[in-house]
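About this split. The held-out portion is used to measure sequence recovery: a designer receives only the structure tokens and must propose an amino acid at every position. Recovery is the fraction of positions where the proposal matches the reference. Here is one held-out target exactly as it appears in the evaluation file.
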């Protein structure tokens, strides 16, 4: 039996399309969009590509518009089921579900699978936003509602737009990308009060120390910016922090509405 005909064939999801074996192209939609070597394609293909990008936003907005309050959970796709961060992700997903939050992940394996599993087992809504990649493909089995995206930027918009908070567990470059995008959006007030929780103090403490001792010490960020990150190992404290921030936002919105009505 050839490698391409094993019981678990290579598989790639490209929007609503599933590709396997020799039908899988050598590059992804993101790569073809961003690679400067393919610039000539702008003249013939990118007008259609723009419509495809638009369709991803429309599909995401339409599918996720009725989500209940949700929390996006990030972490490594490479974490094994017996790892501490996998167990932490599962506990977190369950705790968020019990607090009536839907759980949104990237839909893949590792920590993402753990958070989806915890939410699903606790009776909550488990959401997965997948991405076309040459590796780590497919939505995990614990996703109740899933969307496959071609483009990272469309997918990242959905993570922020439909979540009330981010919880970031140990992960790699992709996890750091989501973390710092969220913090930047809060710092620049592109989003209002948006809790960002780092779980796994032994993993994240070095980063937090560097942000304080290097970036803040050199004046690149302020003390209030470092305060945008909440570091903990305690699942209950993480969920309570998110809930408290939600209450503050509701109270602030109510105060703004009352002031508007009074002014007339």
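Reference sequence for scoring:
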């Amino acid at each position: 039996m050839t490698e391409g005909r094993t019981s678990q064939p290579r598989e790639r999801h490209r929007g609503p399309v599933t590709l396997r074996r020799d039908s899988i192209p050598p590059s992804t939609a993101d790569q073809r969009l961003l690679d400067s070597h393919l610039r000539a394609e702008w003249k013939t293909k990118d007008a259609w590509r723009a419509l495809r990008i638009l369709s991803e936003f429309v599909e995401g907005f339409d599918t996720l518009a009725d989500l209940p309050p949700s929390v996006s959970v990030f972490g490594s796709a490479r974490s094994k089921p017996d790892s501490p961060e996998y167990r932490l992700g599962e506990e977190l997903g369950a705790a968020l579900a019990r607090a009536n939050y839907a759980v949104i992940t990237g839909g893949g394996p590792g920590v993402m699978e753990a958070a989806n599993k915890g939410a699903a087992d606790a009776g909550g809504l488990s959401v997965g936003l997948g991405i076309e990649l040459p590796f780590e493909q497919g939505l995990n089995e614990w996703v109740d509602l899933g969307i496959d995206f071609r483009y990272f930027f469309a997918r990242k918009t959905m993570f922020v737009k439909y979540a009330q908070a981010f919880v970031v567990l140990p992960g790699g470059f992709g996890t750091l990308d989501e973390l710092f995008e969220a913090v930047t959006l809060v710092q620049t007030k592109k989003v209002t009060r948006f809790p960002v929780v780092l779980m796994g103090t032994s993993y994240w403490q070095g980063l937090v120390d560097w942000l304080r001792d290097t970036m803040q010490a050199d004046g690149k960020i302020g003390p209030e910016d470092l305060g945008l990150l909440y570091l903990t190992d305690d699942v209950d404290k993480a969920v309570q922090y998110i809930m408290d921030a939600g209450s503050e936002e509701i109270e602030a919105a109510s105060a703004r509405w009352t002031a508007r009505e009074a002014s007339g």
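Annotator remark: The beta strands are 11-14, 17-20, 70-74, 102-105, 126-131, 145-149, 165-168, 196-199, 229-232.
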